[in-house]
Amino acid sequence: MAGSISTLGVGSGLQLQSILDQLRAVDQKVIDRKSDKITGLNTQLNEFTVVNNKLITLKSSALTLSLSGTYLSRTVTSSDDSAISATVLEGAAVKASTVAVSNLAKQSLWTSSSGFASKDTSIASADATLTVQLGNNVPATEMSLAVASGTTLSQLVDNINDASDNPGITASIVNDGLDPANPYKLVLQSNGTGEDNRISILQQLPDAPLAEDSSQSAANSLDAQFTVDGVAYQRQKNTIDDVIAGVTFTLKSAATATLTVASDDDGLKDNIKSLVTAYNDVVQEVSTKSAYDSKTKKFGILADTTLRDLPSELEGLMTSGNKADSTGTIKNLFDLGMAFNRDGSITIDDNVLSAAISADPDKIKSFFLGDSTKGITGFADKVNDRLRTMTGNKGAVFGEETAAQSRIDDLKNQITEDNSRLDKKYAELTKQFVALDQFMSQMSNMSSFLTGQFNSLSQGWSGAGSSSSSS
Fold first, then answer.
1. Could you tell me if 323 and 235 lie in one domain?
2. What backbone phi and psi angles, to 5 degrees, belong to 340?
3. 86 exposed, middle or buried (CB, 10 Å; 0-12, 13-18, 19+)?
4. Are residues 254 and 216 part of one domain?
5. Is the same domain home to 35 and 61?
6. For residues 285 and 51, is the Cβ–Cβ distance under 8 A?
7. E strands within 176-312?
8. pLDDT tens digits for 391-447?
9. Per-residue DSSP letter, 325
10. Residue ranges of the alpha helices (H) in 104-168?
11. Is there a single domain that holds both residue 384 and residue 312?
12. How many domains does the chain have?
């Protein structure tokens, strides 16, 4: 402690240092109370952040419902997903389409007519050339490979795969096990599917002739062939994205399936429920932190702030409506099954909400989006706009945060000044106590001296009296 002297009180015998410490402790309580206020204000600042984040979550839910794309969300189902699977984009037409697949797109496949004893067996007894064409494009996409005498089966595979003019063909070796003595065969397969990737051998290797897979003769197309609602189509690939607008479907087997595009009712219902959940989170947080606690006998940390009125303001916002739906079927959230609970929270009747979405999706869209041609603001925009203000730099939360921070800064300055004042006060008191201690010490020394003198005189007088008596 400033001004503290460890030997203070030695001269006087008084507990002067203890007295100073006790006096300082009394004055320090004023500063401690201010520090406690800062701690409370910092806790309050943290709570403002919590409330603001919950308001932002509520705003985000409202924003989602204010976007037209939310009501364009679609789902697509296949009656036989093992035969045809599909995905869908927003805004695709709601309808069902029957897809009948007669042929899947395939990769072209050629295999050597005869087998070889091992992968290292020579497949060229003399120099030769292998010429392969891919597709029937003009000009043709060809690969012409010079094969040297003595080239082994594995070397040929590597040469084909590494050729700079390889048009899109992969060579490999298979062990078909049909001829135990010569089980290894050369396989050529196109990397892509469809007729544009059909392999043609223009020049064979004399010692390793190749034959096209029997199921892929010219009469059997490598293209996907299917019908959609009776209209025939042919494509190079099995993934089709240009037949049903907004729908991409993949052919998996020769079969028939129905693809059904529908509005994403569950997605819309979840978005509405998310709005309700976000609202309840805000209301419960503020109500709990503003209420009186019978155990601590104190009100919550938000009780003395303007945020305590948020539940009432939000309730008014959630009960507001509009007449964008000209039929008046959906004019507020009550028409979607909303109900208020005694604690201020709200619930949505799932059955009422589901029925409304199923029966009147366009009316629900009108309620949330409004009608700009009639100057009617949608409910979602109304909530989003109000929350933008609440969470912005002109809102109640920002105002409370600014006020609390200002009070914290002011209290910190006061504490600094108070500490400085106390340091000066007790430095001066310490000097005075030191002077007192020295004075008391001098008085004690003088007392001891005088006592000694008096004792000496007394003894002297006593001795003189004894001598006279003897005479």
1. no
2. -95, 140
3. buried
4. no
5. yes
6. yes
7. 184-193, 199-203, 210-212, 224-228, 231-235, 239-240, 247-251, 256-263, 292-293, 298-299
8. 999 899 999 999 999 999 999 999 899 888 888 887 778 777 677 766 766 676 676
9. S
10. 153-162
11. yes
12. 3
The pair of structure tokens assigned to 123 is 């497949």
Which position has the token pair 């099995």? 238
Token duo for residue 462: 């006593």
**Angle CA 205–121–131, to nearest 5:** 20
Q: Which band of pLDDT confidence, cut at 50, 70 and 90, is reported for residue 335? A: very high
Residue 213 phi, psi (nearest 5) = -55, 135
Q: Determine the structural domain holding residue 252 and report its residue range.
A: 74-104+225-263
Contact 36, 461 (CB under 8 A): no
pTM listed for this prediction: 0.70
- One-letter identity of residue 75: T
Residues 6+ apart with CB under 8 A from 459: none
2 lies in some domain: no
In angstroms, the first-to-last Cα distance of the chain is 69
- Rounded Cα gap, residues 263 and 261, in angstroms: 7
Whole-angstrom distance, CA of residue 84 vs CA of residue 254: 9
Number of other CB atoms surrounding residue 147 within 10 Å: 21
What are the distances in angstroms from CA 4 to CA 16, 24, 355, 420, 430? Answer: 10, 11, 81, 15, 7
Report the distance separating Cα 88 and Cα 77, nearest Å. 9
Average pLDDT, the chain: 89
Q: Both tokens of residue 35?
A: 């520090």
Contact 279, 318 (CB under 8 A): yes
Residue 285 lies in a domain: yes
